[in-house]
Design goal:
Elements: E1 5-8, H1 22-30, E2 34-39, E3 45-55, E4 58-68, H2 73-80, E5 83-89, H3 95-103, E6 117-122, H4 131-137, E7 145-151, E8 154-164, E9 170-179, H5 181-201
Parallel strand pairs: 1-4
Antiparallel strand pairs: 2-3, 3-4, 5-6, 5-9, 7-8, 8-9
């Protein structure tokens, strides 16, 4: 059966329908299990797994399961000790659906909060500076790229990695940040103190 969902664990009501998302297309081409990140119209970034379903040796359709990766942000923070932000490019997101999610209390932030991207999940209420612009301006080299910037008089350090869909298109970023303002201030204070001691001894 061509791209027909035998069962969807997340949306049973669409079972039996013909699906067009990228992961099922990949499973259809290879006739093997496929998985990848896909950006839904309401702004959820889904980790989707699709498995071909066979009956009597013939293809009967596909079974899928997906999970919104935004819900893993608090657990990631506990594991790595950094504030977590999951961003997505506005391209591919339906603004009306996004706004409805915010109005229903299922999402924080607003469409206008940042420039050409939105924050899907966060472990810190305020987004530091123009985060999207900072990500775009960073070096394109490396799997995990480092960040070191000042925003709103706070000093942040961390890193991020690009989130790619099954077609290898960049859909957003997983950002890890830590406010190191107090640490930097302490280092400068120590440097001035040691410099003053050195002058006094001289």
């Amino acid at each position: 059966a061509e791209r027909r969902l035998v069962f969807s664990a997340d949306h049973p009501q669409i079972s039996g329908e013909i699906s067009k998302h990228q992961t099922i297309l990949q499973a259809f081409r290879t006739q093997r299990m496929a998985h990848g990140l896909e950006l839904a119209g309401d702004g959820r970034l889904l980790l989707r797994v699709v498995v071909p379903w066979r009956m009597a040796g013939d293809s009967a359709g596909y079974v899928e399961m997906s999970e919104d990766i935004g819900q893993f942000a608090p657990r990631l923070k506990e594991g790595v000790g950094y504030e977590i932000f999951i961003t997505a490019k506005k391209t591919g997101i339906n603004q009306k659906q996004w706004t409805a999610e915010v109005a229903a209390g299922r999402r924080a932030g607003s469409w206008q909060e940042l420039g050409d991207c939105v924050v899907l999940a966060r472990t810190m209420p305020a987004v530091p500076g123009e985060l999207c612009a900072i990500l775009k301006a960073s070096s394109p080299i490396g799997f995990v790229r480092t960040l070191d910037f000042i925003a709103d008089k706070r000093h942040f350090r961390g890193g991020f990695l690009d989130l790619l869909d099954p077609a290898r298109q960049n859909r957003g970023a997983l950002v890890m940040l830590r406010d190191v303002t107090s640490e930097v201030v302490s280092l400068w204070t120590m440097a001035f103190y040691l410099g003053g001691v050195g002058l006094a001894i001289a």
